[in-house]
Structures
1.
Amino acid sequence: MILLPCPWCGPRNVAEFGYVGEAGPRPDPASAGPEEWRGYLYGRANPCGWVAESWYHRMGCRRYISVERHTLSNEVRPLATEGAGR
Amino acid sequence: MSMRLGPQPGEVLDRTRPFTFTWNGREVPAYQGDTIASALAAAGVRVFSRSLKYHRPRGLLTASFHDPGCIVQVDDEPNVRGAHRLARPGMRVRSQNTWPSLNFDVKAINQLAGRFLSAGFYYKTFIRPRWLWPTYERVLRRFANGGEVPPEAAGDYYDKRYAHPEVLVAGGGPAGMAAALAAADAGASVLLVEEEHQLGGHLCWGDEADLAALRGLSERVAAAPGIEVLCDSAVLGRYEGNWIAVVQRTVPGVAERLVKVRAGTLVVASGLIERPYVFAGNDIPGVMLSTAVRRLINLYAVKPGERAVVLTGNGDGDAAVADLKRAGVTVAHIADARLGDDIVRAHGRGRLRSVELPDGRRVDCDLLVTATGWTAPAALLTMAGDRPVYDPRAARYFPDPARLPEDVLAAGGIAGDGSLDELLAHADAVGAEAARRATGAGDGPVPIPTLPVDAHPALFRGRTHGIVDFCEDVSSTDLVQAVEEGYRSVELVKRYTTVTMGPTQGKLEAVNAVAIVAEATGRSIGETGTTTWRPPYVPVTLGALAGRVFEPVRYSPMQPWHEAHGATPLVAGAWIRPDHYGDPHAEARTVRGDVGIIDVTPIGKLDLRGPDVPKLLNLLYVNKWSKLDVGRVRYGVMCADDGVVLDDGVTGHLGPDHYLMSTTSSGAATVWEWVENWLQTQHPDWQVHVTPLTTAYASMNVAGPRSRELLERVTEGVDLAGEAFPYMNVRTGRVCGVDDCVLWRIGFTGELSYELHIPAAYGLHVWETLMERGHDLGIAPFGVEAQRILRLEKGHLIVGQDTDGLTRGFSAGLDWAIKLDKDDFVGKPELAWQQEAGEYPRLVGLQPLDGSVVPEEACQIVDPPRRADRRPRIVGRVTSSRMSPILGRSICLAQVDAHLAAPGTQVTVRLPDGRHIPARVTDHLAHFDPTGDRLRV
Ligand SMILES: [Zn+2]
């Protein structure tokens, strides 16, 4: 089981977290067309390599955190602490 | 005939504690320390089971945990490893897989089976005709190797534990002990895990020098402060970040304990497993490995036979010869494989009679011992990414250190050969390095010496064909046949023949299988590759995995009252709530006529404080929230950014910068996370503080025309008059003497009603007081079922019942609530596009023309085909349906395609029995009191 570096709680088992998804900005709802909006809703790059993603520390501090995870090795490194996009 | 020897220097028996147990009903003597198999072997038992497919009699092979021939049933427990489990006084042990009986030689079956149960027999034989499968299954089950769990078996307690050692050492032989000692000396906390009942590995059945070395190591381990030892325990698997599963079998009062370990460094010191030799008759009882006879003699003081032939290719085979002679066994012939000697086949049925040599001679014997080489149990290393490399000179696989991650090391026989001193020096360095990698202490990497690799003759299959996989009854001819049928990859041969797929999981048979596929395909062993080792390393009980599963159940503070008054429970997520108290229709009539009370504690409640709460509400709800005065409540609907309805509920403005949001019962946790997500990730600058209060309040809804009269009797500080406290308002005050209660006047049931949120500790008191004070008003409790009837009569939707994961806002009858003129709210773009597109399903009220028919929920609404040979088109579905007590007819909510949504449209509902019935779309969602007069009195 991989460990996630929670900036508030330290390294914790991934089972304590809820997976939110690949991190990315929400498009401006006033100007986004269907293609851009549905890309945000459903489109995932799913690369083999480093990906920025959000996790929710459900069984811990209840903060949303962002990390970078390597999808091949599952190596994880901190990204930003808060407000880093969903 | 007793085969028990006099006391042996290394025996693990306590001869002062004799007892008996039963074997297939017969009493067997044993000493404390005996395994089931050692006690049976001492009593002269040679046949323990019958093989999976051919039902050949099977005896001891390895006399260790991995022995495939003596898996037995102990009392209610099936599949017990008889050569590992300690015998206990009075235990009832039975053989498994002995149809028709253990001692009856099923010769006819053998011959029949030999024709049919060849490679791929599962695929070839049992596929067609399909209708015969149930019969095949019954026959196969007869053959299958399982024991039984009687339905009345008492459950056992399975435990769970977490451990965080800096170094975990898998394997407590000499190398594992030395590595653990070195790691502890370097300051690391160490968990030392050993599969056997005692530390020491092969030293336990060794000579005087081995026993002396064992005593020294054991004393130091016992004295080392940083080492915790788990014996009779197995490392099941290694996962990312050295997350390691260990099953611990010997814990007082516990069947098994699953230890979840997060280790800094893992040292794999699993030793070597002796490999069987493949030749005709290699599974006849009396054919054993050299380690098996050495264990029987030295650990358990059991004479393994009377007259032996030994095939030896290494020093352990030679040591077995010495042990046999010391135990009084006649060694009739020694075939030294290092000198080119061999054996051809074993003869005997049910027990070994003789061994045939290459020159045609037959040597009479009842014991054949083979020492033909070793298999490195590399499972844990391969789980960590290693790809073991085959060394033809040593005739075994070695780990490839270059492929191992930083936090995994190997020590002992799995890493190389050498004298005991060389292995201990190597393990000492590995242990120190493991500690350094885990703790970061020390002055740089510890140099690890290179272990020598000894030459060993390559002995896999002899001149005849024999059994390769003793669990699955797969022979070398099966493997050759599979190759001839085109399966050249060892992974495919494995799946086709089931070789290595039995309980030993390849530990005994994998390398032999690879060698035979290599021989049959004309490749080398290295070119052929291996099958993949996957967790678990040894089979694990479901009990250990399930263990203590924490499944919390939630009850409201009023639960004792519900139980005392005959409530039928309803499981709703984590909550147990009253479904009804006997007659839901009567409960519903009480609410319409007098006053009823329902426990709604599971409703989600979030306390929201701060100046930016209105912004939050405007963002998360589809309707408008900027102008909600203190003292008002409003119904709101949340959609996700895909426009799908997420949750609904009311939110009240309690005071300056203070709101209380309610959610559906099932959505309480989701909405809390949802709110936090938007605040934390999108609007961290907003000043809103969120506190979940779901269980801090006991919630109850007092509903019915006489609810106001009742509450006036018990409420202080709140004017309940219709003008002073109108519909969709909130007040705080004292109820039944309890301060800080929140009252909101809302009406899910369609009646005048007050939802009370009471500080949880006083919930039962308030409930009981209301029941008492409302007695003369005809008060009665109502449950979830009556509430569902009442809300359906009123046409109020339930998110998740009348909507699903595809229902966007305009399909849920929420046109009146969705404010597309707001700047932004979650889901707005999709809802705007939904409205623009227009052709979306609608939520409608629906009544069958025959009011006595209640279509089941989820019934399809269909467009009847114009021609009989066409299938009807599905144009909607019934989302909710009940018989209405107040209307005396069936009522429904339904989602229908847009063209059928106009009031008065007649549609066709297909019932589960295939009948089609007509139903009419009603004028409103509400079947009862569509103008809402009853709510506003
Ligand atoms: Zn945290």
2.
Amino acid sequence: MNSQSNNSRYMVDLVKVSKIYLPDIQALTDVSLSVNRGEILFLIGKSGAGKSTLLRLLSRMDKQTKGVVEVDGHDLSKIAGGKLQRLRRNIGFAFQDFKLLPDKTVAQNIAVAMEVSYTRSSVIRMRTKKLLHHLGLADKYNTPACELSRGEQQRVSIARAVANNPGLILADEPTGNLDRETTQLVMDLFRKYNERGATLVIATHDESIYRDTDHRIIELREGRIVNGHPAPEPDHAFADRMDEEQGSPEEDDLWMSDQ
Amino acid sequence: MNFIIAVFTQTFRNLFQTWSAQLLTLITITLSVLIFAFFYLIYTNVQHAGQQLDDDLRLVIYLDEEPAEEMQEEYRKKIVKFDKVERIEFVSSKEAYGRFAAQLEEDRDVLEDMPRDFLPPSIEVYPVRSLDTLTKIKRFSDYLVSLPGVLKVQYGREWVERFYTFVKLLRIIVFLSGSLLILTTTFMVANTIRLTLLSRKDELELLRLVGASTHYIRLPFFLEGALQGFIGSAAGMAALFLLFNWIKLRFAVSSIFQLFEFTFFPFPVVIAIIVISSLLCAGGSFSSTRKFLQL
Ligand SMILES: Nc1ncnc2c1ncn2[C@@H]1O[C@H](COP(=O)(O)OP(=O)(O)OP(=O)(O)O)[C@@H](O)[C@H]1O
Ligand SMILES: [Mg+2]
């Protein structure tokens, strides 16, 4: 984990956040939401409910109109420059529109997320291969991204989001183009990263991935939270466990080890 | 260390991906360095040439009568007042006669009937041999004519004047080609970089989203510019060197080359031109990325 873990209680903390797109589209209204470190949170709601908008605020792709957005203890309206860059390196975002570079190969697309942290190229290659293997794309390593199917592109964008072992993973509709089996692969991958300590916020309207979950589900409707369960008390035991694990640089997990 | 490797990897990847635009820029830089350095080379050589002009740069002041000892001293003072000179020689009528006779060699008998002092006495002024002197020589001559007892002043007028206009022209050309060099290198590089930036808009956007540092995004473009400047100017200088040697071989027997000794730039000048071009290009790319990325 490359978070220089802040000691704030929550990984994500929104207080009365509103977002108005000019001229007058009220995308989010008074959203208050806290996400614990190590939690998996499902963000559901109809198309246009404001899920993507919320995720974009979390990575500072957009700025809220009102309210406070804190990620990993940083108030995003006050962060800029090097600090924002470091924070973003600790956030993996699987964009709804993928944002893959069409001319680059699958491997190069995934590498981008690690290169900005100056990861050694041997490590990059190793991680990329493992991720592709896990997502059933082992034979696409050198394929240009533009030659992939939508579902394949989606998996590549997910691989890129998790490749840098971020502390916070934002997945916007990560299974929209995937069949049941492949969806399972993706959710397995997310679970693995979560077990290693990553916090996940998954925006989706794919009922199959949250139907039987015991993780928190937040529903947005027209920019408001409708099933407002308050955030559970922060899981201190979890945070302690994470701190211990961060103490040892050895990565024993199959998915993240660089050996 | 990893940062440096990452930045270099990025740089070479860019160069590789946009090589056709790079090549065009490179050729432009090479050509403008070549043009500038060519004229600058001629200019420096011509400047040195002044030192080899020797006797041609002599002013002869003809006097109406033989100057006495103290009169000579007076002339000497007045001449030196105008400008530093290398040497002043007084030539009496008799000495002039002697020289003339020596020049005639076999035919000296034609002088037999002439009086020994039929040639006027003169003062020969040898100005300091430099380009600067050349440009002043006309005024010098005008000044000397105004001295008392001076009949006329002679110097290689036509030659000197032609040389002077030539040097003036060269100076303008060097100045223009120098400006051209600065414009093309900075502008072309800034423009190529801008095109690269535009074509890689999505990638740069993504880099920012995944938290690339400003230096990581920007340094490759800076290096790219510096590299273009370095390779372009080095190629330009190499081309000039080849051209120089070819001309030297080709025209080795022609008279201009007998007159001056043509030399190539000394090594430090070559280095300076390359370094300055590289810096100009790096600067061009730097300003272009700043505008575009608004960093
Ligand atoms: N850049 C923008 N400019 C103006 N309006 C926007 C912009 N982005 C989103 N919106 C509006 O904000 C509202 C919420 O959009 P958002 O993309 O967050 O929905 P969503 O829940 O992600 O929907 P979907 O499930 O279809 O992805 C919509 O009404 C949308 O039209
Ligand atoms: Mg969306």
